[in-house]
Structures are given as C-alpha cells and as structure tokens.
Amino acid sequence: MNAHAPILSVTNISKQFGGIKAVNGVSFDVQRGEILGLIGPNGSGKSTLFNCILGQLRPTEGHCRIHGRSTDGVRPADLSLMGVGRTFQQLSVFPRMTVLDNVILAGQEHEGSMVSRLFGRPDAGLTAKAEQLIEFFRLSPYRDTEAGSLSYGQQKLVDAAMAFMAGPEIVLLDEPAGGVNLTMLAHLKDRLLTYNREHGTTFVVIEHNMEFVMSLCTRIIVLAQGEIIAQGSPDEIRSNPMVIDAYLGG
Amino acid sequence: MTPTRIILVALGIAALVAAPLGQGNYIVYTLTSWLLFSIAAMGLNLTLGYAGQVSLAQAAFMGIGAYVTALMTLAGLPWIAAALVSVAASFVVGLLLGYPALRVQHHFLAFVTLAFNILLFLVLRNEEEVTGGSFGLVGMPRPSVLGISTDSNLNFYYFALACFLFAAFVMWWILRSPWGRAFKALRENPIRAESLGLKIRRQTLLAFAIGSAFGGLAGALMPPLVQFIEPGSFALIHSLKLLLMVVVGGAGFFFGPMLGAALVILLPELLRFTEGYYLIIYALLVIVLMVFSPNGLIGLGQKIWLGFRPKQEERRDMKKGFQL
User: Fold this and answer.
1) By the CB < 8 Å criterion, does A88 face chain B?
2) In what order do the strands lie in the sheet with A202-206?
3) Closest C-alpha among B306, B302, B214 to residue B256
4) CA torsion B89→B149→B157→B91, rounded to 10°?
C-alpha cells in the first residue's frame, strides 16, 4: 500500500433525503496521522457525512474509501476489522460490565477465530493490553468498577479507550467533548494528542466545542447547508469571514 | 472463581446430592423435574437474559429433544446416542429458525417463536404415525450407566443431576469465555458492539441455537423420566412457564433460572395445602415479586445483600446522554 496515499478519501459525496440535499458534492482526503475536524452549524450535514463515511448511509452520489476500499454498504463490524474505530455522540459503554471487560470486549473480536475465542483464555489474552490502555486514560482506579456507575466524563474516556483497543489506523470521534467538564476535556485532549503522536493514528472529529476542536485538530473543514464552505488550519478557519458569518459569529 | 464461590458451589452440589435421600418417590420425581426444567431454563436464560432476545419456543425445543430421544430409544438405540442427536437436532433447528427469525427482534421475534411452538405442537399432534399423536409415546426405557440401572427414581435423579451439572459447567464455560462477554454486549448495546467488530447477527444466532440445544438436552431427559410423552407437554403454555422461570429467577444471572425453576415447580407443590386457592396465592406472589424486584429472586437477594454493603449504583441519569 502506498504510504502517501490518503487513509480516507471522500469523493463528491451527495446524500439526498426526499427533496432535501443533506450533503452536496463534498470531497476531501485525510492523510495518515492527520487530525481533521468537521465543524458546522446544526443541519449542515456533518452527521450525514459521518454516516456515509461509516457505511451506515448509502450516498446518493460519490463514494468514500478507507485504505482504498469503498465503505459503501460495509457492515460496522467489518469496518472495525478494517482498522476503523469510532466513538458515539451519546454514551456508548456497556454499563453492567466492568471497565476492564468493556475494554477487552473492544479488542477480542480482532483476536483469533470464533472457536479459539470459545476454548481459549477468558480474556482472549488481552488483559495486559487493556490495562495499559486503561492506565493511559488514567482510569486504573476504576478497572473493576461497572462502567455504568462512572461519571459522564469518565464514561467518555472509557468509550475512547474502547475505540483504541483494537489498534485502529483511523478513529472517527463523534462529539467527544459533548457534556464533558473543562478539566476532563483538557485530559481527553491531552490523551488524544499523545495517542496521535505515539501511534500516528488518524482522527476525524465532529465537534461543536470550538476551543477543543481548534486546539486538537491540524486541519478543519467547515460545512454549511451540506457543502464545504472553508477548509484550512485552525487559524485560517478562525479568521475566515465566511465561517464567521455562517457559524462562528462575532 | 473466588475461593468463597468454590466453597458455595461445592456446598450447593452437596445439598443437591443429599436432597432426595430419605424422600418418597413423588418428591424425588419433583426434584428430577426441577433439574430438567433448570437445564431448559438455563438455555433460555442465555437467549433472553444474556443475549437479550425473547424466545417463546423453548418448550418446542424440549419437544424436539423428547421425541427424538423417545423414538430412538424405542428403536433400541442407547440413550446417550439419542441425547446427542437430540441436542444436535435442537441446535440445528434453532439455527434454521433463528436465521430468518432473528431478522426481527424483541416482540416480533417473540411472535415468530410463538408461531413455531404452535406449529411444532400441531405437527406432533397430527403426525400420528411417527409421534403417536394425542396418545403420545410410551414405554421408553431408562438408561444404564456403567452397568448401574437408573430404573429406580433415586438412581435416575442422580443421573439427571450429573446431566444438570454437565450442562451448568458448559454454560459457565461459555459465559466466562469471550463469547459470554459478546452475548452480554448484545444485550446491553448492540450498536456499539457491532462497531467494535462483533458480528451481531452471527452471535445472536449462536445464542439462540445454543439455548435451543439446552432445551433439546432437557427434552432428552424427559422420556426416561416420565416414560410417556405427548404433544401437550410441549405446548406454548410450557414455553411461557419456562419464560416465567427465567424472569422470576433473574434473567441474565447464572443461578437465576435454577431458582426460577424451583419457584415455578416447587411452590405450587408447597401451596397445595391451600387447596383451591393455591393458584391465586402463587400468582399473587409472582406479581408482588415482579413489582418489587424486576430482576427476580437474584435481584431481590442482591437488594437485601446491598442493604448491608455500600453499593455500586448504575448512573441511570446518564443513559440517554443526559448531562449534569
């Protein structure tokens, strides 16, 4: 595989719901190791685009490719096995399982076969790796706590740890900062940046928290009414008159 | 497993070994029935309690196991061969039914499985040449194990106990493996589970088929126990009874179905002294239990236990992304 080829390639994606064009001719590439932010006002088509990338919505036109392979109609499980991790806007932990079990679960389907998972070790040999990730997100005190009893921010961290457990090459984060307090947010950002630096993992982030997205992302794409109205570095986006007019205000 | 749990399990097995000693035939028979229904309820607990799918066909899978075993043992084949075929047949039918049925879920799946149970009942009743129809099948022999006959009710109890312990071990093994974790994930958050690489359709189908196979094993024990089987023993009402066992005992808890089966089978016997009122009392007790402890008897036990210990409460306020 060409090391310089984009890890994610979105080509002329349009998605129409009845008479409404939610996404209209959007194209962009994401390079390995990049942290791309997707921002825009409500109804700008961010989530529709996200779902098209993740194969959950079939685009009316255009296509998305991850590692050169079309994601159109690919089941979420297969995307995960292709090296695509994701987090959800709403809390998405398994509340009655411990933090350790949540994180092990996130990696076990990538280990061995169905048969080896039945007759092999109960932890699929993943406890040490899961503990490392739990430690990385500073969740060690809660290792054996049921995930459902943690605070909102802590559950967001568990969610992030799960997204990284299988060693994905690209992770799509859907509003990771939503509802997280400032201290926890700084911690989350620090962990994401460290992970990106240490592992070279690519991130695509949908976010409304401008401070978070501007300090996390290396490049930002702004959507409005289903179209890209601007893209560039955080500083370029902050000073772009079209973005200020359509989204940032001021 | 912690040392305390190992000791508790050993004590439980010792109690099961001692339970029928000095008891009359009727009590021994009732205890054996409890073991059988516990095996079937364990299977349903995997489907319902762990994988989160409502099945109303567990009695039908018991029926498949019972009729296959009855026909094979009446033809002179050994019980163990008949039981293996019964378990395999129930597993395969579970797969065949589950494959299309699991395209729908929750109450839709309940209706599909309900229809299957009714269909199987009609087949068993109408295919007289094979199944004996409403007259059923009689005279199935009891197996011998290592030269020891199980013709006496006490010996058959111990034989059923061995099968029960084997089934419980298999279930424990499945639940402690990554499969068990995957089944729980299906119940708690299937969308998230799929995004982590879990093939939810395949895993749900497996849970359904394995649960069905447990029904088949329970059914295989029925012909030698009762020595008479007829379609009415596998009608829809018995699937509902098995569902009640799982829910009353505590769905999603390992020992839930065993406790539930004990309550559903033994309580009516204990309440017989109330004569005509026993069904009313029984129903009221079940309603009260469900209202105050939706997690069944195990949930009730946990509530009492947590009353003495600091508890770990789930953040229900955050279930739907609610933010404080």
Assistant:
1) yes
2) A84-87, A170-174, A202-206, A35-39, A219-224, A227-232
3) B302
4) -10
Nearest CA in chain B to A82: B197
In chain B, % of residues over pLDDT 90: 69
Q: Are A106 and B196 in contact (CB under 8 A)?
A: yes
ipTM here:
0.88
Asked if B178's CB is within 8 angstroms of A108's CB, the reply is yes
3-state helix vs strand vs coil in chain B, percent to 5: 75, 0, 20
Long-range contacts (CB closer than 8 Å, 24 or more residues apart) made by B282-291: B286/B244, B286/B248, B289/B248, B290/B247, B290/B248
B230-257: average pLDDT: 94
Using the predicted structure, report yes or no on whether residue B296 has a pLDDT greater than 70. Answer: yes
The rounded distance, in Å, linking the Cα atoms of B295 and B253 is 9
Considering only CB atoms, A90 lies closest to which of B177, B200, B320, namely B320
Domains defined along chain B, listed by start: 24-323 (1.10.3470)
Determine the Cα–Cα distance for residues B130 and B117; give it in Å rounded to an integer: 18
Average pLDDT, integer, range B191-209: 92
A118 inside 8 A of chain B by CB: yes
A77 touches B at CB < 8 Å: yes
User: Between the CA of residue A216 and those of A135, A184, B5, what are the distances in Å?
Assistant: 21, 14, 48
How is residue B138 written in tokens? 């009689």
To 10 degrees, the CA torsion angle through B156, B159, B163, B165? 110
Radius of gyration of chain B (CA): 20
Q: Cβ of A93 and B192 within 8 Å? A: yes
A124 contacts chain B (CB < 8 A): yes
Contacts of B216 (CB under 8 A, 6+ apart): B61, B62, B64, B65, B68, B86, B87, B88, B89, B90, B91
Backbone angles phi, psi at B106, to 5 degrees: 55, -125
CB B94 within 8 A of CB B208: yes
> What is the average pLDDT value for chain A, to the nearest integer?
90
B179 membership: H or E segment, kind and range: helix B178-188
What type of residue sits at position A9? Answer: S
pLDDT of residue B303: 84
* Amino acid letter, B266: L
Quick one: which of B200, B165, B157 has its CA closest to B182? B200
